[in-house]
């Protein structure tokens, strides 16, 4: 859990910290207290050592120091992070106790049984799986599940239904991406040894029967191999809400209401579709035009602001001597004098104009122009949410609820932290993760002086599993819902669904083990379209609203990531994931007015 930095410690709190640093029962010491509740040093040490023991390369002090340095951390800073994580858990549990929120133990038992069933095997394999994902034992896993359930209930207690005004404002941000067609489809998979062309010929016979009056839903039941859609007449939903192949989308976009396609060969999915358009919803063009104009204006203003900032920085850099500084001050003084004189002259002229009525006319014209501008802005076309199909509107409501719930919980937790009586004690010596940072390997040692513009790809590229770890996720962040925390607010263009965006990112498991990062591509950002069809749902819901230059922390439940299927050997089934994302550019425009981020890579969010 990310919290604001800086705690106010009174003299009384300081005295308490000295007293509480004394040994607790059993020789353990107190790392911190939260409203009198203790966080033991052994708890923090155990969590940090779980990270250190996650890789053999961290076994030596040199390897561990190097990993910390690469993560821009020191042992003291890592300890502080873990203490703050524990503080968040305690505050959350205290808040739940005050609200009377409890956990159903039987539901936790069922979740553990389900997890054991997925792992399979005996107790030894179960213990191995727990340790692999950062849990000391089953009790630690149980506590994680309990905390996740408690936070989910706490979050739900803070959420209220959006007003029509709030929902209207939110949906307006996505209006240009909501146009789409609803469809039903007969999906045909080839038999063993059958080509798609041969299957297409069979599909043509079905199309002929449909054109002769056969019922589409009945033909779905008889011929479709898609068991999921088969139960509801082949319904696929709205194209703007689902992941569909290029071939499917192109064919659907050509259909009018109730029209049926010819057989569509989809080599991507190795199947043949027969598609029926069952609905069309098009956002009014004037709404899209207004959004495009607003986006272009915002991008131009951001670029202009960046240009101005760059100019100011350059001017400051050039003032490198006292003489230059004095000359600059003198010039500023002269300019100020000239400005004052000009202002006096203008004031006199205004006075004369006022006497003759000229200034009055000018002011009237100016007020008229201003009023016209305000009227234009007020009359900018808006999307009437009453016209939006219910399924699309519900999806947008879900996105709104997810984002607003997360922000409300974050705000609530920050307020708790500000009002809490918190003490953090000094770090004891001799802890097993404390290491001399001067042992870290020099970054210069890997220099090869090879021109990167001529270097070719080699097998020496750092694999993902050698990337430094991230701090383990606070269990209170694993809520079963998308968690969004802005760790740095940007100042550039805002990312919206459908934009081409450029990001740097790190993806990791709740244990802190990194599975993918732009760091493994040399640290270069990657560019992709923020839309369904290429990304996990957690990114589609979690990135919109970010501004260029901003950084965002996402915790994504498995249902919005790779679900029960996982992703090959990289991401196990039912994995909750976390991401640290930095937005570099939107539609090619970055903080500096132009982003060159053309790195092509298979992103683990796809």
Helical amount among residues, as a percent range?
Answer: 40-55%
Number of strands: 14
pLDDT averaged residue by residue: 76
Uncertain stretches of 5 or more adjacent residues:
1-26, 314-377, 443-465, 595-605
C-alpha geometry = globular
Q: How many angstroms does the end-to-end distance come to?
A: 26 Å
* Continuous helix count: 17
Tell me the β content.
Answer: 5-15%
* CA radius of gyration: 30 Å
Q: Which structural class is indicated by helix and strand composition?
A: alpha+beta
Q: Tell me the major beta sheet.
A: 7 strands, antiparallel
Describe the fold and architecture.
It is built from 17 helices and 14 strands. 45% of the residues lie in helices and 13% in strands. The longest helix is centred in the middle third of the chain and has 35 residues, at 322-356. The strands form 3 sheets. Strands 8, 9, 10, 11, 12, 13 and 14 form a 7-stranded antiparallel beta sheet that branches.
Helix-strand layout with pairing:
Elements: H1 11-20, E1 30-34, E2 37-40, H2 41-52, H3 61-70, H4 75-99, H5 105-119, H6 123-132, H7 138-158, H8 164-173, E3 180-188, H9 196-211, H10 216-223, H11 227-230, E4 235-238, H12 246-253, E5 264-266, E6 271-281, H13 285-318, H14 322-356, H15 358-378, H16 390-419, E7 422-424, E8 483-488, E9 500-509, E10 514-517, E11 526-529, H17 537-542, E12 551-556, E13 577-586, E14 589-590
Antiparallel strand pairs: 1-2, 1-7, 3-4, 3-6, 5-6, 8-12, 9-10, 9-11, 9-13, 12-13, 13-14
Helix pairs in contact: 2-4, 4-7, 5-7, 7-16
């Amino acid at each position: 859990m990310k919290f604001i930095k800086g705690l106010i410690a009174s003299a009384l709190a300081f005295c308490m910290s000295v007293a509480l640093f004394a040994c607790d029962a059993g020789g353990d010491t107190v790392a911190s207290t939260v409203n009198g509740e203790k966080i033991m040093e052994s708890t923090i040490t155990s969590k940090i050592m779980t990270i250190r023991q996650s890789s053999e390369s961290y076994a030596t002090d040199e390897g561990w120091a190097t990993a910390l340095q690469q993560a821009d951390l020191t042992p003291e800073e890592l300890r502080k992070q873990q203490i703050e994580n524990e503080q968040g858990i305690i505050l959350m549990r205290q808040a739940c106790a005050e609200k009377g929120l409890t956990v159903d133990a039987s539901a936790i038992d069922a979740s553990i049984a389900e997890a054991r069933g997925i792992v399979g095997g005996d107790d030894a394999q179960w213990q191995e799986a727990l340790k692999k994902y950062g849990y000391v034992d089953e009790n630690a896993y149980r506590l994680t599940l309990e905390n996740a359930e408690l936070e989910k209930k706490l979050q739900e207690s803070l959420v209220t239904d959006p007003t029509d005004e709030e929902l209207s404002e939110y949906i307006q941000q996505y209006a240009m991406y909501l146009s789409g067609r609803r469809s039903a489809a007969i999906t045909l998979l080839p038999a063993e040894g059958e080509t798609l062309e041969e299957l297409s010929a069979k599909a043509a016979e079905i199309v002929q029967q449909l054109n002769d009056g056969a019922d589409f839903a009945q033909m779905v039941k008889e011929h479709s191999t898609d068991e999921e859609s088969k139960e509801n007449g082949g319904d696929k939903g709205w194209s703007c809400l689902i992941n569909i192949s290029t071939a499917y989308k192109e064919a659907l976009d050509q259909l009018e209401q109730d029209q049926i396609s010819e057989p569509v060969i989809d080599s991507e999915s190795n199947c043949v579709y027969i598609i029926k358009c069952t609905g069309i919803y098009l956002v009014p063009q004037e709404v899209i035009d207004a959004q495009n104009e607003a986006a272009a204006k915002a991008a131009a203003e951001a670029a202009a602001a960046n240009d101005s900032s760059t100019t100011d920085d350059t001017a400051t850099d050039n003032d490198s001597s006292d003489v230059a500084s004095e000359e600059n001050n003198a010039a500023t003084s002269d300019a100020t004098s000239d400005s004052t004189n000009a202002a006096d002259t203008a004031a006199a002229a205004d006075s004369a104009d006022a006497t003759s009525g000229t200034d009055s006319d000018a002011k009237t014209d100016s007020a008229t122009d201003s009023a016209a501008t305000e009227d234009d802005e007020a009359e900018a076309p808006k999307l009437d949410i009453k016209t939006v199909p219910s399924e699309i509107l519900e999806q947008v409501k879900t996105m709104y609820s997810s984002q607003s719930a997360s922000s409300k919980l974050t705000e609530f937790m920050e307020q708790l932290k500000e009002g809490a009586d918190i003490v953090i004690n000094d770090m004891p010596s001799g802890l097993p993760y404390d290491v001399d940072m001067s042992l870290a390997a020099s970054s210069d040692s890997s220099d090869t002086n090879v021109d990167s513009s001529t270097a070719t790809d080699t097998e020496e590229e750092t694999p993902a599993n050698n990337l430094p770890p991230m701090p383990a996720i606070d269990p209170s962040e694993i809520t079963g819902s998308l968690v969004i925390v802005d760790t740095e607010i940007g100042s550039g263009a805002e990312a919206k669904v459908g934009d081409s965006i450029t990001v740097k990112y790190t993806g990791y498991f709740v244990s802190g083990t990194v599975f993918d990062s732009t760091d493994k591509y040399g640290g270069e950002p990657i560019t992709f379209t923020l839309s369904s069809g290429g990304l996990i749902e957690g990114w589609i819901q979690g990135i919109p609203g970010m501004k260029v230059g901003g950084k965002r922390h996402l915790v994504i439940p498995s249902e919005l990531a790779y679900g029960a299927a996982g992703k090959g050997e990289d991401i196990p089934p039912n994995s909750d994931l976390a991401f640290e994302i930095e937005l570099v550019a939107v539609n090619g425009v970055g903080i500096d007015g132009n982003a060159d981020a053309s790195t092509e890579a298979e992103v683990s969010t796809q």
